Structure formats: structure tokens, C-alpha cells
Model the fold of this input.
Amino acid sequence: MPTRIIKADQSDPSPESVAAGSDIIRRGGLVVFPTETVYGLGADALNTEACSGIYRAKGRPSDNPLIVHVCSMEMLSAVAADIPESLAEKLKYLWPGPLTLILRKSSAIPGRVTGGSDFVAVRMPDCRLALELIRVSGVPIAAPSANISGKPSIVNGLDAARYLDGKVDLIYDAGNTRYGLESTILDLSGKSPVLLRPGSYSVEFLERYFGRIILPETLDISERKNIPITPGTRYRHYSPDKPLYLVDDPVLLENIAMGKYGMNAAVIAPDDLCRISRIPCISIGSGSDLDVVASMLFQALDSVDRVSADVAFAPTFPSHGIGLAIMNRMVKASVATLSDEKQVMVAIGGKNPSSQSGGNVG
Ligand code: TXA
Ligand code: MG
Done:
């Protein structure tokens, strides 16, 4: 299909740019639009056939459910059932914002959207263009992240065009998203809130509203076990085609960047190291501001396959606050975490590290 790419202002979209997308949504087509987290690949959430198109365009496994985006509390009531007054009160402070909730679905939401489950993932994005698109379309919009399944999420419309041109009806070219990492997913279907995916709202921040949030053990990145939490996590995620290794020792990463173990590698690293690196270096900002690291991470992962190198290495970050979401994505994108020279040399030689059992391999 021919894809229209139109420029739009995320925070002050013209009525014409909004109408271009809403016409397509109403006709059952596919629109790639920005949110405050990452770009979404959207369709009318009430239209089963349109939602099937999302799975085809993304190459997404059909049992991996979609997030439904709403623009108002009235629309939330049409999507989800039994919303307690206490939750509506909290959402006054948290929505629009990077928080997805798992709630009991209403009968309006087709099983195609929820993977057959009685529970729906729903959020109100904090992006004027997204909110206007939903409002003018007059329907909730189902949208996963606008990447090809398994690849890093997309934070810029022109990056989306590289992968989805010809597969969707319209792509908004509206610059980079504000956060750069997906929303935090909180399951409210049981007695206590459970974190299904760390994201742009930190757990520490959300606990001020929800009290203690249960973190599945599988989020402990030191264990390196990617056991499924939410359906999507069963699949390979965020991965470049080239092997990416995390390096938990900054001195070791610096030695890699200086070419000590060979030159056919690339590094993802802070600016200071990129300035002196003798191998291709993909910047993630100063490295000390984790909000900046979060906003640059997906483009850095996406660049790994375009630099001239056979293998790439990246640093680790403290896994609290936004660091928990950063490390969650980096662990899923990587093959293993390396801690010593021997493992690095084997990785650069193109073989698997021999000491995998001792090397925190996931
Ligand atoms: O920030 C975001 O959340 C972005 C923007 C576009 O809103 N969306 C996004 O969608 O990241 P996606 O599909 O890439 O990730 C949503 C995750 C998937 O892992 C999916 O399995 C899970 O949410 N999910 C969706 N519906 C669910 C449900 N009913 N129960 C449990 N998990 C669900
Ligand atoms: Mg995704």
C-alpha cells in the first residue's frame, strides 16, 4: 500500500494533520503516530479487521495483545469495566501519562485486541497529537510500539518510515518522542498492583499512589532470567541483528573502545568514551543523566546494525528509578553480560563466551 508521510507538530497539531489520520482510522486503516513514550502503530480498537492489520504490518505474534489508547475518562469507561472511584481519583494525577493499566475489559473491546483475555491494557498518552487523533477519530486506538516485532521500539517518525513504508497508510513525521522508553505497565486485575513492565514512570513514583507494587522476581536483572511476565516478553525483544553484549565493568568497556581486544567491534557508550574511542562508538549522552540515556537508548540499539562492526558492547546502569526500565530493555536486547577479558575476547572472536555459567548469561 502507498504510505503517506506527513509532517506534524506533536504539541500543537493543525486540524488538517489530525484529520488526515482520523479519516484513515475511521476507515479501518493504519496510522503511525507519536506518543510521549514511543511511536505507536494504531488502528480503531473496536474494529477487529483493522486490528488484524496491525499484527500483519508488525509481523507480531497474534497472541500478543495490544494497548488501547483513550483520550478521556468517558472513553475509558467504554473500554474497561468496573473502574473504582479511587482509581479515577489517582488517574487525575497520572493521566495523561506513561502508565498502562490492566483492567477488566468491556464488551466493546474485541478479543482480537486482548489476545482472548478478559483484561485489557489501556492508557491515555500525554501527547497532544495522539489525544487529538483519538478524539477526532471518535474511537479508542489500539497501538503497539511502531517497530517490526523483536526490534527496538521507534522514537522518531522517520525511523518508523524506514521499517513500515508500504505497510501502513500514514506515518506522522513529528520528531522525537519526549521519554523514549515505553509506558510502565501495572496489572490492577488482582488484589495488589503488579508491575508487568518497568517504564517511563518509575516504580518509586507510582508507589506514592498505589502503595506497594509487586515486582516479579524475573525483573531482577542480576538473575538474567527472561521468564515471561507479560505475554510480549516471551518473544525476542529490542534486539539488533548483531550480537550485543553488556559489560558491567567500565574499565573493561574502555579497553574494548580502545581496540585492545580487536577492531571489529562497536560500543554504545557515554560521550567521554566516544571522544577517545578507536572503534565505532554510538553515544548515549553524558551517561550520568539516566533520563537522557532512556531517550537515546532505542536509537542507539537501532544504530548497532548500521555501524561497521560484527559485534557490539554496551555499559550497564544502576537498576533503580528509570534505570530499572533501561536495564530491562538492555538485558532483552543483549546476548549476555560480560565481566572479564576472556569473555570479551571470545565474544569479539565471534564465539559464545566459554564461561557462560559464571557470566550471568541470559
Ligand atoms: O508506551 C507504550 O506503552 C507504547 C505506546 C505506543 O503507547 N506501546 C507499547 O505497546 O509499548 P507494545 O505492544 O509494544 O507493548 C505492550 C505490552 C506487550 O508486551 C503486551 O504483551 C502487553 O503490553 N499487554 C498488552 N495487553 C495486555 C493484556 N491485556 N494483559 C497483559 N499484558 C498486555
Ligand atoms: Mg513493543
Remarks:
- The domain at 4-223 is CATH 3.90.870.10 (DHBP synthase).
- The mean pLDDT is 91.
